């Protein structure tokens, strides 16, 4: 049967939500069209699906049912965000679990490119730094594919995070058992520097990354064997800096030399292996310190956008939700930069939420529902 192209709809929205999603206008014109599998138009277009998921993360919802109730009963959300013919629970969950993933990935990449074009670089002199790490996602018992270990259902998001501009760059989803190391080569591009913790230490990988042109700054175990080729001078917090072969000969020694830097902060010793010979030892220490920013991002993303309150159970649906959460964060990063020349902060997110709620209240008041208006204004006041 013929496929029907997704119709393009232009909808009037409140000014605050419109400012937030404004970068999507050009992006949606360029992405692959979402098509119906039959000869009838999609009841929920990709734009409907994306806007609903953005609202889910932005408005502090904790379940798909709560979001659907808002899309049905709130006058503003019903008029400006929900599908034109309304929303059904079955249609929404079917959409999240079975379609839109390709388009979401394209939107995520396009917004990431825009963010990298406009956001300032905090440490441009250090080059393009990408922290790589994994974050466990608590799963339900019905998610049989999420098989972290016996008695623990968890999936894992493996992510790349642009440390210079504070935005996510790439993501992969696994069943929780997948090892960390293979993702460095897929997340970090040639010429970029992977900034990684001890879990990624692998001397064969150090050789492979250098061959592929992927730079790295990787914390290593203190007892790693080191055959010194060329020592360098040390001072201040730096107590070790040398070009070495890392590992035990005949077992796991690197074929290509690596630079190892040792430094001490507040009585704690850190050992870092790298192929970056263009930076000072102090700069190498700073690069590894910046890795902590991906941990801060994971915590902020979970706490304030509730990305890990799953509304899907399939690997496809969980990836849809992860991408929607990343898109929401990128939109917030662009919005905060354009409107306030600032990085994303919960203060600015709360401010935006209140503006949108007030616009919702005005819409409901115009529609003649003063009870709903009082209710919304009470929520806005309570959450300030």
Task: Explain what this protein looks like in three dimensions.
It is elongated, with a radius of gyration of 24 Å. Strand 6 and strand 7 (238-246) form a beta hairpin. It is an alpha+beta fold. It has helices spanning 15-21, 24-30, 46-58, 64-73, 75-80, 89-98, 101-118, 182-187, 203-212, 281-290, 292-305, 315-340, 346-366, 370-382, and strands at 129-138, 154-162, 167-174, 193-196, 215-219, 226-231, 238-246, 258-265, 268-274. Among the domains are: 15-105 and 315-382, no CATH class; 217-286, no CATH class.
Task: Give start-end ranges of low-pLDDT stretches.
Answer: 1-10, 370-384
Measured distance between first and last alpha carbons? 52 Å
Cα gyration radius (Å): 24 Å
Element order: H for helix, E for strand: HHHHHHHEEEHEHEEEEEHHHHH
**Care to count the β-strands?**
9
Q: Could you give a short account of the major beta sheet?
A: 9 strands, mixed
Order of strands, main sheet, comes to 3-2-1-4-5-9-8-7-6
Task: Tell me the structural class.
Answer: alpha+beta
Tertiary shape: elongated
Beta strand %:
15-25%
Q: Give the overall pLDDT as a whole number.
A: 88
Number of helical segments with 4 or more residues: 14
Helix % is 40-55%
